[in-house]
Amino acid sequence: MKVLANDGISESGILALEKGGYEVITTNVAQEQVANFVNENNVSVVLVRSATKVRKDIIDACPGLKIIGRGGVGMDNIDVDYAKSKGIHVINTPASSSESVAELVFAHLLSGVRFLHDSNRNMPLEGDSNFNGLKKAYADGVELRGKTLGVVGIGRIGQATAKMALGLGMKVIAADMFIPQVDIKVEFFDGQSITTTIVSQSLESLFKEADFITLHVPAQDGYIVDEAALATMKDGVGIVNCARGGVIDEIALIKALDSGKVAFAGLDVFESEPKPEITILMHPKISLTPHIGAATGEAQDRIGTELAQQIISILG
C-alpha cells in the first residue's frame, strides 16, 4: 500500500511505515494536483501538516482513499466529518508536539519581556554607533517569575505550557469551557515531581487577571481576542498566539500595541497566513515566527512514529 506524505514526514516515520510494508512517497504535490496524483499512483493514505488541504473535492475524487492523517493537532484543513461519512479514517497526533509548541510560547514570552525581537533587529544596525542608546531603550525589562499567566484552552498544549510556567515560578490560571479542572504534574530531571490543580475560570475574569495571555484553541468562527476583550485586560499585558490565526483581531491588536495597552505580542500564526499583513510583520512590539510551533526534530520524530503506528493499527 502507498502513503503520500505530501507535507513531509520524519525519517523515523518513513522507516516505521516501510517496516510495516508500506511504500512512502514524499513528493510535494501541488494542491490542485493532489487528487490526480492519489488516483494515478493508487495511494491509500494521505498525510498532511498544515499546508495541504483535504476538502470534499479531493475526498469525492479519490474513492480509494482509506486514511487521511494530520501530523499535528488541529484538523481545520481537513473536512473531517465528510471524510468519516465516506468511510475514511481521519487521524492526527495531538500529543506529539505539545512540548515543542509550549517552548515556542516561552521563546516569545521571554523575547517580549526582554525586547529580544527588537534588539536583534536594531543591534546589527546601530550596535556599534548607538550602543548606549539601545541599552537605555531596552532597560525596562520585566521578569516572568511571580507574574500570572492566563492559559486560554487547557488541553494538551495548554497543560504543557502551564508546566513550564510553573517551573519558572509563575501563577497559572486557565479558561476552558470543556475542561473544568486539570491536575498539572511538573516532573524534574531526577524523578521528583509536584502536582497542582488548576480550576478553569471564566474567560472574562482571566482577561482581567492575567499579566500574560497565551492562546491554545482550535480555529474559531469569530475572534476570542477582539477590541472589547483587549479593553478588559491589564495595561501592559503580553499576548502570545501559537495556536491558529484568526483567533485574534489583528487590527485591534495593532491599535492596542500602539496605545501601550498591550506591551508586546508573540505570533506564530496569522489571520492572512501565508501572507501576514505588513503592519504585523513590521511592528516593533511583535515577536514573529512563521508557524513553526511543532517544527522541532523531536516533535517531528514523535509525529511520524505516531502516524505510522496508527496507520499500521488500522490497515494492518
What labels describe this entry?
316 residues, alpha/beta, Rossmann fold, 2 domains, six-stranded parallel beta sheet, five-stranded parallel beta sheet, 13 strands, globular, D-isomer_2_OHA_DH_cat_dom, oxidoreductase activity, acting on the CH-OH group of donors, NAD or NADP as acceptor, NAD binding, oxidoreductase, D-isomer_DH_NAD-bd
If strands are numbered along the chain, what order do they take across the biggest sheet?
Answer: 7-6-10-11-12-13
CATH superfamily of the largest domain: NAD(P)-binding Rossmann-like Domain
State the end-to-end CA separation.
10 Å
Characterize the main sheet.
6 strands, parallel
Report the order of strands and helices. Answer: EHEHEHEHEHHHEHEEEHEHEHEHEH
Number of helices: 13
Write down the CATH class of the largest domain.
Alpha Beta
| Radius of gyration, taken over Cα atoms and rounded to an integer in Å | 21 Å
At the third CATH level, what is the topology name of the largest domain?
A: Rossmann fold
Residue runs with pLDDT of under 50 for 5 or more positions: none
Strand content: 15-25%
Structural class: alpha/beta
Q: How many domain modules? A: 2
Mean pLDDT: 96
Counting DSSP E segments of at least 2 residues, the number of strands comes to: 13
The best one-word shape is globular
CATH architecture grouping of the largest domain? 3-Layer(aba) Sandwich
Proportion of helical residues: 25-40%
